[in-house]
Amino acid sequence: MPVRHLSWLITAPLTLLAIVFAVSNRGDVPISFWPLPFLVNIPAFALVLGSLVAGFLAGGLFAWAGGRRQRRAARAEKIRAAALEKELETLRASLPAAGAVSPPMTVDARVSKPLMSLAPGGR
């Protein structure tokens, strides 16, 4: 089951629950901000749902701040990869033409004659 369907299975009932809660709790709740002489009457559902939204946003902010180190490392690796790609292009451009490159040496060509004479029974 794709993640999209799983998220809808979770989101739809929670949304329905929030709507039922909002309809059931339309009464006003007095809110006072202590040293200030203000008294605010707001619906109970607005207080609860507003608190949930504020908590969700605060959690998202803390999660975003916690990923700062990984974002910084990813940015540095991206810059490093771009520099290495540029260096690779310069090295490829400085290579001689493909026909001018000598073929790789074989094992027999690397063995020198003086080393062969040191072997037992060497000529």
How would you describe this structure to a colleague?
With 123 residues, the protein is mainly alpha-helical. It has a domain at 10-68. Helices cover 67% and strands 8% of the residues. It is built from five helices and two strands, in the order H-E-E-H-H-H-H. Strands 1-2 form a two-stranded antiparallel sheet. The protein is elongated and about 100 Å long. The N and C termini lie far apart (76 Å). The model has no long low-confidence stretch (mean pLDDT 82).
Number of strands: 2
- Describe the largest sheet: 2 strands, antiparallel
Count of helical regions? 5
Query: What is the SS-derived class?
Result: mainly alpha
Q: What amount of the residues lies in strands?
A: 5-15%
Q: Give the N-to-C terminal Cα separation.
A: 76 Å
Q: What overall form do the CA principal axes indicate?
A: elongated
Summarize it.
By secondary structure, this protein is mainly alpha-helical. The protein has five helices and two strands; from the N terminus they run H-E-E-H-H-H-H.
Sequence-ordered SSE layout with sheet pairings:
Elements: H1 3-24, E1 28-32, E2 39-43, H2 44-66, H3 68-94, H4 107-110, H5 113-118
Antiparallel strand pairs: 1-2
Index terms:
67% helix; 123 residues; elongated; mainly alpha
